[in-house]
Amino acid sequence: MPQDISREPTIAVLLPCYNEELTIAEVVRRFRETLPAATIYVYDNNSKDLTALRARAAGAIVVREPRQGKGNVVRRMFADIDADIYLMADGDGTYAPEDAPQLINTLLTERCDMVVGTRRGVNDDAGRAGHAFGNRVFNSLYKWLFGDDFTDIFSGYRVFTRRFVKSFPAVSGGFEIETEMSVHASQLKLPVSEIALDYGRRPEGSSSKLSTFRDGARILWMFAMLMKETQPLRFFGAFSLFFLASSLFLMAPVLVEFAETGLVPRMPTWVLSVGLLLLSMLAAVTGLILDSVSRGRAEQKRIFYLSMPSGRVERRTGDVVQKPERGKASRAA
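== Glycosyltransferase ==
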């Protein structure tokens, strides 16, 4: 009688890094102690210090990614590495490697495709008052635009299944990559979960790579682009309503004057109001057409996601069991 073949799932720890020589060796060492069976990858993003050397000395596999930006690094890691479970963290020591088993266990027991380690107390202070305010604003905006699947869309401590990693398009170039991951999961309604974890501080001498205003503007732009791609009717509908309101505001006094006198003395205002009305109609039609296109793309992404082997793992009597792939019979013991 066929039965499941027992084996441990392969785990890849992914650490994108830029100038983290003060912390990376300790982070790698703690991950090796916590997940001794995992393979640890450090992707060096043009560091100007000894990050790569210290990561390699600590036992990590080091790869250089020349395109600057965390999104470029994540896209490269997801394309290069094959594993059953992917765990992504930062190399700055703010995420505790000792929490990794809890994230992985949640992925297995909840049968999720992504588990996010939310940063406990990050909205109280995120190193800077501007970061804390930005976290609150963007998380609230995300809930309004894309749904309430997540409470901390900027957390870099995440664990994924192979199905999620290999179906994720990853088009972002910078720190907005976490936002893109969240929108991808929300759009396809993938099973996700969150765990509140402690969030540490950088050691003395280590500086954050985030810029409150520059990265905030990039994230806001990413929100707009993702809304245009995933919710075009809502996106272009907002422009349509704006143009319509502007047109009626300019058109009303001209129509009143025409009703009273039979003349249209303010012809430029009338022409502008009609032009805005046409723009409103064009935006509405554009939104309707692109909404159908977006729905078709979402269906294709969902079908591609389902075509990937699930790589699901289950815990049975303390062991991790890999389900045999469809069409491949497992050998009897």
